[in-house]
Amino acid sequence: MKDGGRKQGALSPCAACKLLRRRCALDCIFAPYFPADESHKFASVHKVFGASNVNKLLQELPEHQRSDAVSSMVYEANARVRDPVYGCVGAISSLQQQINSLQTELAVAQAEVVHMRMRQFTPNSDTSNVDMVADQSNIGESLWSC
What we know:
Blueprint: E1 2-3, E2 6-7, H1 15-20, H2 39-49, H3 51-60, H4 63-82, H5 88-120, H6 136-143
Antiparallel strand pairs: 1-2
Helix pairs in contact: 2-3, 2-4
């Protein structure tokens, strides 16, 4: 049974204290968020932010916000290790570009569907007269009923 990253009975240091080579106190601020079996998390956070800064940040936050802050620091640190210049901002920018591209593709596909349905309701099958529509009230209902 674990209690704040340490096993009861034997005081196994948390990942932070293990990396910093210090004794893990019972009230160690790192222990609940950096358990001994997840040392890679603290290693990347330590590399990017430093133990002192993480310690200060966690002490300034209310306990109910610390877990989210640690998750954010781990994400940012991993992104910063992968991309030292842009970090998670580079990943966010890339995702925004993908969203814009996919929205453009979706708009084109929707326009093609509308174009094909408009062609379906033209008075004759001549595709050059696509702008001429026979019954507009009928078209509006059938365009959006898939």
